[in-house]
Amino acid sequence: GVCPTGVTNKRVLDALRELGHDVYVISAPTEPISWHNDHHLECSDFPTYPSILFTKLGNLFQYNLNLFFWEKRVYREAIKKIKSFKPDYIYARSTPSVACRVASKISKASGVPLLMHFTDPIPAPIEWAPNKRYQSREIKLMEKILPYAYKVSFGNEAMLRYEQSILTYD
Fold first, then answer.
1. Using an 8 Å Cβ cutoff, are 84 and 24 in contact?
2. Distance of CA 160 to the CA centre of its chain
3. What is the pLDDT averaged over residues 124-133?
4. pLDDT tens across 34-88, in order?
5. In this structure, what DSSP letter does residue 29 have?
6. Residue 35 confidence (pLDDT)
7. Radius of gyration of the chain (CA)
8. In angstroms, what CA-CA distances link 31 with 3, 35, 77, 96?
9. Distance CA 58, CA 137 (A)
10. What is the spatial distance between Cα 8 and Cα 1, in angstroms, rounded to a whole number?
11. Is there a smaller number of Cβ atoms within 10 Å at the N or the C end of the chain?
12. Per-residue pLDDT for 123 more than 90?
């Protein structure tokens, strides 16, 4: 609820609750956590170190390794929680992009439909992130996870057009 992503997540959570939805949140540790109530699980996002090395290796192997263990923890906890919570949907936002990857894996394993919202373009435009290996890695990620989405939304029309221009998946 303090950083921009947290503020936006809190607004989405509050709006869903106001509409009468029962929402369970799995996230990296947040401050303050009081807005989550009892429907929240934090999974440590302690990155793999040294992160610069894992970033370079991830670009080489075309897989984001920095949050590899966070992704594993979230997947394991979500699969356990789905058995008792029984959600109608899984909702994932694009920051970080591994949140959408793990959500697609959870959806595939559980059969719960996936809703994805992209607040930031993936990959970031080449002017912001010129590394070709990074660009390639993130495009491959998008093309792998988007087929599992029941619905996809973007921050605005320009972002939708940008994504469509770099992906082969329609």
1. no
2. 17
3. 87
4. 555 666 566 555 555 566 666 676 667 666 666 677 788 889 889 998 998 889 9
5. -
6. 56
7. 16
8. 9, 9, 20, 18
9. 8
10. 8
11. C
12. no
